[in-house]
Amino acid sequence: MTTSLDLPPPPEPALGSEWTLTSLADAGPGSRAYAAAPRGGGPVAELRLYRVQHHPLRACYPYGAHDIGLGLILPDRSETGQELVPRLLGGLVPALFAADPLCRRVVAAPAEDDTATQTALANGGFHRVTEADLPGGSVVLFTAEPAWLADLPTALDDMPH
């Protein structure tokens, strides 16, 4: 039986034929890193995937053992790159939920002053949640949830009594 302490790194997402993911060697322990590019094009973003429980983000919200953290680096800040990243995220998030059905959230935490990444996340279907202070500086917490979780009612009147 796998416990929350010995979970493997997040699985590699299957993005289909539109995107190419190239593994990067410097992912670090317990994480995966990729250069993401449209098929036939140059890199649009660098993705770092890790389990939230192994990152300082774990102090920011009541995380699940299978929650996946996303680090997003935008090397291509051109207009074309800014248009492609939301499409990439629109395919990435469902692929991560399909690859790990126990994942409740994909969480990203760009620096507070990184408005380009914040805009890309918002345009890619992530929801801005709050600001947090981490050891490396202030960040803005963004999340994406699978439909089965996002559609659960939270109003007290909807709860069973």
UniProtKB/TrEMBL annotation:
Leading EC class: transferase
Alphabetized UniProt keyword annotations: Acyltransferase, Transferase
EC number: 2.3.1.-
GO molecular function: acyltransferase activity
Domain of life: Bacteria
InterPro entries: Acyl_CoA_acyltransferase (IPR016181)
Name under which the protein is recorded: GNAT family N-acetyltransferase
Organism: Streptomyces massasporeus
